[in-house]
Amino acid sequence: MPIALYTSFIAEEIREEGRAEGRARDILLVLEVRGIAVSDDVRERIGSCRDSALMKSWFEHAVTADSAEEIFETT
Q1: How are the residues of the chain apportioned to helix, strand and coil, as percentages rounded to the nearest 5?
Q2: What pLDDT, on the 0 to 100 scale, is given for residue 65?
Q3: Contact 38, 32 (CB under 8 A)
Q4: Could you tell me which of 1, 47, 62, 69 has the fewest CB atoms within 10 Å of its CB?
Q5: Contacts from 13-19 at CB under 8 Å and sequence distance 24+?
């Protein structure tokens, strides 16, 4: 039996916040596994972002970046 999700503005906002936190963890994990140091400023910028498209771009950059700051550069 499928689980019914409560639909409301607040419920969707909470779900989106959870997704953003997951994306931030993924980006930081990629950088950590690659041995790339992450400053507190970079960690805060990643953790406070709520833009899905931007987070996707940062994740993609994290895979090949030489520094944490480089993920914020546009190509």
Answers
A1: 65, 0, 35
A2: 96
A3: yes
A4: 1
A5: 16/50, 17/50, 19/52
